[in-house]
Write a structure and sequence with these properties.
The chain is α/β, with parallel strands linked by helices and about 500 residues long. The chain has 18 helices and 22 strands. The chain has a nine-stranded mixed sheet with strand order 9-10-8-11-12-13-14-15-16, with helices on both faces. The termini are far apart. It binds adenosine-5'-triphosphate (ATP) and magnesium ion (MG).
Length: about 500
């Protein structure tokens, strides 16, 4: 983080200093988690969903926090007031502090801020873009999937005065959410990937999701660039919301290039035997050279055809940020899964392959992952296992979407289905009604039950794909399948 003193933090947040603040001291890191606190840190105490950060001020000071941002005054073990900036709302204060920091960074030197939103693929795209931009200059991107009113400021707190590229992932669960996040970072480049049914429960409708994602392009400044997915009808419609003072760069992996003025197009899109995306990256525009139009061959280390879109989006964002197409193409092969539990492939020494996609799940990402699994099976003749937990947050669509997914598993000819958790029961029912029976399909209630069943029945050569919603902790099962011995227990 850029070095800040207590006066600056009070100025940025409209806060009040407590009597024990050392006004000459500065902080160089900031966090809401006392366990991540380091020397000269600013600890932000905010009431969370499960606990209240104000309870951890002592722990944070022990870990090196020299200043606290809090909603109320607290005292230490000796009854002394903790040195703090007191604000009415710590989450709002984080946003204000982040905005202040972005201003300072921009004032110091040229900085390009890129915001990424969409219903699926944000984290994959930001990781790909971070790999591309890091070849050009100091790049800051969110850790994991930080994309909320807390995650966005925390990302900005990791930037420095020298940061050349600042990538921000933006998620939303209500109309107005993206506008608020965009107001913190004011992106120069706004990337919108897809509008899906993700989180439809909290939004009420797909239209509301489209309305919210589009807030990112409305926020563009003069000279800004909207990077839009021409293949998604709801994203394409956002072109009319791009302000006149900004421009649009399209990306597409459709069967034929869209009739748009400036497009990065994936021609001859395909996958390798390991299901790594491969395509010819063409730039089709008035200012394109013959080589740009002919295309340059691209492969990357991500797994699944669906990542073509994310790679294109990352390439387009880098191009919009001024990076040469040839440099983008050169850097593409070094793009690998960078955040945990996203199509992470482990080839075990016993010949079993685990594909851990257990970070999260919704209907779109489940279908994409299962299709990839089916393709891997088809390419290699290996037996395929889908180990699936529930998709949460689908509201009244829950049963229907799970039944449909069970049908998809059968139609894709996945060899073995293990459904995990009571909430995923309809997935099992969908598969059974579609014609899967006997040993092909099982329903177990717990991760332990799933592990025991798979361990009993798996054999060298199997490919085991694990996926479920974040709240179901299926990644613990994926971790165990990746590392623990598998196989029939010896008979006593
Ligand atoms: N374009 C896509 N189409 C379908 N599935 C995708 C696509 N891109 C990524 N996925 C899959 O969706 C899941 C989530 O991907 P990722 O973490 O990149 O998305 P996200 O938008 O950041 O999600 P979240 O909202 O949970 O932060 C992964 O299983 C990934 O393989
Ligand atoms: Mg994410």
């Amino acid at each position: 983080m850029i070095e800040l003193n207590a006066q600056q933090i009070a100025e940025a947040t409209g806060g009040r200093l407590t009597s024990t603040v050392d006004t000459t001291a500065t902080v160089t890191t900031a966090n809401t988690d006392s366990r991540l606190m380091t020397a000269n840190g600013l600890f932000i105490a905010r009431p969370g969903e499960t606990t209240d950060g104000h309870h951890f001020i002592g722990a944070a000071r022990d870990a090196g926090a020299t200043l606290i941002l809090a909603e109320r005054e607290t005292t230490d073990a000796n009854g002394q007031p903790d040195p703090a900036v007191i604000v009415p709302d710590a989450t709002v204060a984080m946003a204000n502090l982040a905005r202040y920091i972005v201003d300072k960074i921009r004032q110091h030197s040229e900085t390009t801020v890129i915001g990424i939103t969409g219903s699926v693929g944000k984290t994959s795209t930001k990781d790909a873009l971070a790999t591309l931009l890091a070849t050009q200059g100091p790049t800051v991107a969110p850790q994991g999937s930080y994309n909320s009113e807390v995650g966005v400021p925390l990302t900005i707190f990791t930037a420095d005065l020298d940061t050349r590229y600042l990538i921000v992932e933006m998620g939303a669960d209500r109309v107005g959410n993206i506008r608020d996040l965009a107001d913190i970072v004011r992106p120069d480049i706004s990337v919108v990937l897809t509008v899906g049914s993700a989180h439809a429960a909290s939004f009420g409708s797909v239209d509301n999701i489209a309305q919210t994602k589009g807030e990112l392009v409305e926020a563009l400044p003069a000279g800004g660039v909207a990077v839009l997915n021409a293949d998604d009808i709801n994203v394409a419609a956002m072109a009319t919301r791009v302000p006149d003072h900004a421009s649009t760069l399209w990306f597409s992996a459709a069967f034929a290039p869209p009739r748009r003025p400036r497009v990065l197009y994936a021609a001859n899109a395909d996958t390798t035997v390991d299901e790594n995306p491969r395509f010819d990256l063409q730039y089709l525009a008035d200012d394109a050279t013959a080589t740009d139009r002919a295309g340059r061959e691209v492969t990357a280390g991500l797994i699944g055809e669906h990542h073509t879109t994310n790679l294109l989006a990352a390439a387009a964002a880098a191009f919009a940020a001024g990076v040469d197409l040839s440099a983008i193409v050169t850097a593409m092969p070094s793009i690998k899964p960078a955040s945990a539990h996203r199509m992470a492939r482990t080839d075990r020494t016993d010949g079993i392959t685990i594909i851990d996609d257990a970070y999260n799940a919704n209907p779109e990402s489940m279908r994409a992952g299962l299709k990839t699994l089916a393709m891997l099976g088809r390419n290699t003749g290996r037996r395929t296992w889908a180990v699936l937990g529930p998709m949460l947050e689908l509201g009244d669509q829950h049963a229907k979407e799970h039944i449909l997914l069970g049908e998809v598993v059968v139609r894709l000819n996945i060899d073995q289905l293990v459904v995990v958790g009571a909430a995923a029961r309809a997935l099992y029912t969908g598969a059974v009604n579609e014609g899967s029976w006997g040993d092909e399909v099982d329903h177990v209630l717990t991760n332990e039950g799933a592990f025991d069943l798979i361990s009993q029945r798996t054999a060298p050569g199997d490919i085991i794909f694990v996926k479920g919603s974040n709240g179901t902790r299926l990644w613990e099962l994926a971790d165990k399948l990746t590392t623990a011995p598998l196989g029939r227990k010896e008979q006593q």
